[in-house]
Amino acid sequence: MLDQSQIKKIVNDYQDPSTLMTLEETKSIVKVEQEAGKVNVKVTLGYPAKGYIEQLQTDLTQLLKQQTGLDAVTVGIDSKIIKHKVQQGVQALENVKNIIAIASGKGGVGKSTTAVNLALALAAEGARVGVLDADIYGPSQPRMLGTTKRPESADGKSIEPVESYGLQSMSIGFLIDEEEPMIWRGPMVTQALQQMLSDTNWRELDYLVIDLPPGTGDIQLTLSQKVPVSGAVIITTPQDISLLDARKALKMFEKVNVPVLGVIENMSTHICSQCGHEEHIFGSGGGQSMADQYNVNLLGSLPLDIKIREDADSGQPSVVTDPEGEIAMAYRAIARRVAARLAIQGKDYSSAFPEIVIKND
User: Fold this and answer.
1) Residue 3: pLDDT band with limits 50, 70, 90
2) Where are the alpha helices (DSSP H) in 76-131?
3) How many Cα atoms within 13 Å fall on the side-chain side of residue 103?
4) Where does 185-325 have alpha helices with state H?
């Protein structure tokens, strides 16, 4: 008969195929109870996995029955998302546990489409999620989220996020006409970003996904120096030109001590809708090569599929248009890996320390 520590080790050593890591690596909490030939296991994941928990319960139950020789094995799984540490000297937001920056280094690689589907996938997995459109010159999230609703302000000082498909969102596109150009200089742009971030009444978010504009300029610098970012995700295509700029984005986050959670390779392959022929239009293996070169993770690959583009343009992203479809499942698998990689990061203990005030009596 195995004791509690041995059973706990079996669970901790389990390689979760959904995240490609062991439960111990993702800092999941495992509790074991034994009584009269029965084993009860409780696992608390540090990342949302609503669409995968049932399968994980089944797999762990079968594993423990094999290892213990007992039939009376029950496994319960839930998740608890905590606030993770950010850059040193940057104050965390009160109602936002974690900020995930989505960057590409260049335009035209499907970054905004990936960002909104990733946010929707995190929500589908059970998290409370928001999206901040940081592309002041070319905001696209209002169109992708299918809403032109103007944000409301109850006190004239702060604004309420616009809700769509269960996401809380904010974009300069909600405040101007869709065809109106933003003819602003850099300082105005960075001020607008900070105001949208801090003056929006985000409501208890587990994750705030920030859709960054292309490049490594003012917005990215402001984000890295003044916005509490828990982790970054780099979007690229397999094409050499795209990879060149994606590497710059990755190096930028490294320089400002923001952990890069991994790389997503978009438009990795195209399957002809008529004949089924698969073709690597933008090359192959670029995302994996970049991940290997910089010792980061390839979080997943997404196809060049006309449905993804049509869904985004129509204001109904693929994750909500066909939630059980192959494309949505690909986004949800990537979302779990992103959240699991973030769960590895250290916990934010800033709120645990009291504020010390010195007074002269």
Assistant:
1) confident
2) 111-124
3) 31
4) 186-198, 218-226, 240-255, 286-293, 306-313, 318-321
